[in-house]
């Protein structure tokens, strides 16, 4: 018996926490996708900043196939070669000395927050437990991380929240300074807010956050789930800010589409997660780490990272030309292949309309809140696909703006 799979079946069998588009993609190659009807799309969404090498990249397929014929999963009773190799490459390429593997960005952030609390308690005492994060931030969907994320719409409605968590406005250093004290355990921030509207930090703000953390013996946690692994034009965004965090969370592009997350930190801080204090059944499994290692070997090259910066300029220039014709954007911003086009007051709140119009025109984009259209394509998207995708996006804009 053959089951006909269609969008209506989703509503019959799936929990209704998502409302996906009517089309169902069935095939991907590079930066192109095809749906069940055979319609082709240029993919500027990239699985929400995940598919950093596009779809079915040869290096990833090779790694997955080879490792799939060797060893998939053991458990954390044992280690495996791909996990050790990947951890070594991450340590050699970053500020970190130690790596913890998980399965997602939320889990990497959860580990970072638990480690920060553990460090503070053991180093300074029970009183040092305050965690400060920023409004409009996003750090995952576990109850701890969604509470630390500064968007009540995601955390309200589930009963009492984890305590000791405070929020201030992003880029408001004076508000942060007023809130911090010797009770502050950690400050968690995105080095470029993604879900909150693609908001870049002021250079003085980031440096000021680091200085305040040092002053109050608090840890600085960078959530680089979306910005990391080449997305902004360097392996991690902190490299471009002149500030080094104490703990860093990575996921999304880390696996290029295969689920994996990582928490990176120093030897001294890592020592507080002794055996038995934290863990993950699947975290660091051989299959995920083999794929992520292949992604690392492609992304962490000057050719790819320079290409990200070149594509950023192409996007911004063409989006500005589209705006010159149709006057729909108030701001075009972001860095690397994490870009946002904020709608002006005439089209405020209609970002999803533009996203749906894009699907009709054959291009997939994202939103970052109700008024920002987000672009997170492959880091190696061919320039011809950039041009074609933006041509289709312009058609979508024209269909709305006239």
Automatic annotation (TrEMBL):
Indicate where this protein resides in the cell: Cytoplasm
- Coiled coil stretches, renumbered: none
What general EC class does the enzyme of this chain belong to? transferase
Which InterPro entries would you find in this protein's record?
Ac/SucOrn_transaminase_bac (IPR017652), AcOrn/SuccOrn_fam (IPR004636), Aminotrans_3 (IPR005814), Aminotrans_3_PPA_site (IPR049704), Class-III_PLP-dep_AT (IPR050103), PyrdxlP-dep_Trfase (IPR015424), PyrdxlP-dep_Trfase_major (IPR015421), PyrdxlP-dep_Trfase_small (IPR015422)
What keywords appear on the UniProt entry? Amino-acid biosynthesis, Aminotransferase, Arginine biosynthesis, Cytoplasm, Pyridoxal phosphate, Transferase
- GO BP, sorted A to Z: L-arginine biosynthetic process
Q: Name one GO cellular component term.
A: cytoplasm
Q: Does the keyword Cytoplasm apply?
A: yes
Residues bearing the modification N6-(pyridoxal phosphate)lysine: 252
Q: Which NCBIfam families match?
A: arg_catab_astC, argD, PRK01278.1, PRK05093.1, PRK12381.1
**What is the additional note?**
May also have succinyldiaminopimelate aminotransferase activity, thus carrying out the corresponding step in lysine biosynthesis.
Q: What is this protein called?
A: Acetylornithine aminotransferase
Native species: Pseudidiomarina planktonica
């Amino acid at each position: 018996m053959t089951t006909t799979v269609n969008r209506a079946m989703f509503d019959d069998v799936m929990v209704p926490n998502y409302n996906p588009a009517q089309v169902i993609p069935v095939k991907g190659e590079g930066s192109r996708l095809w749906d069940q009807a055979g319609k082709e799309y240029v993919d500027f969404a990239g699985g929400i900043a995940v598919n950093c090498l596009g779809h079915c990249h040869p290096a990833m397929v090779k790694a997955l196939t080879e490792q799939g014929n060797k060893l998939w999963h053991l458990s954390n009773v044992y280690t495996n070669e791909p996990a050790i190799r990947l951890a070594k490459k991450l340590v050699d390429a970053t500020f970190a000395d130690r790596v913890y593997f998980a399965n997602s960005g939320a889990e990497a952030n959860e580990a970072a927050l638990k480690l920060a609390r553990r460090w503070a308690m053991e180093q300074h005492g029970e009183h040092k437990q305050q965690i400060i994060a920023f409004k409009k931030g996003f750090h995952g969907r576990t109850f701890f991380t969604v509470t630390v994320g500064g968007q009540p719409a995601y955390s309200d409605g589930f009963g009492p929240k984890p305590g000791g968590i405070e929020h201030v406005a992003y880029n408001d250093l004076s508000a942060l300074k007023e809130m911090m004290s010797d009770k502050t355990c950690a400050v968690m921030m995105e080095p470029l807010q993604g879900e909150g509207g693609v908001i870049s930090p002021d250079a003085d703000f980031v440096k000021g956050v680091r200085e305040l953390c040092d002053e109050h013996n608090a840890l600085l946690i960078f959530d680089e789930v979306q910005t990391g692994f080449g997305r902004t034009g360097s392996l991690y965004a902190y490299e471009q800010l002149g500030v080094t965090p104490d703990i860093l969370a990575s996921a999304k592009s880390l696996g290029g589409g295969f689920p994996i997350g990582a928490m990176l930190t120093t030897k001294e801080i890592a020592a507080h997660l002794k055996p038995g204090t934290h863990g993950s059944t699947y975290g660091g499994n051989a299959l995920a780490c083999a794929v992520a290692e292949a992604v690392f070997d492609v992304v962490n090259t000057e050719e790819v990272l320079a290409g990200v910066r070149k594509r950023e300029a192409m996007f911004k220039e063409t989006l500005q030309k589209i705006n010159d014709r149709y006057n729909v954007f108030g701001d075009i911003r972001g860095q690397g292949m994490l870009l946002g086009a904020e709608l002006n007051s005439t089209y405020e709140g209609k970002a999803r309309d533009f996203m749906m119009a894009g699907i009709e025109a054959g291009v997939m984009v994202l939103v970052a809140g109700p008024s920002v259209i987000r672009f997170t394509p492959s880091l190696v998207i061919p320039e011809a696909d950039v041009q074609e995708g933006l041509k289709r996006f312009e058609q979508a804009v024209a269909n709305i703006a006239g």
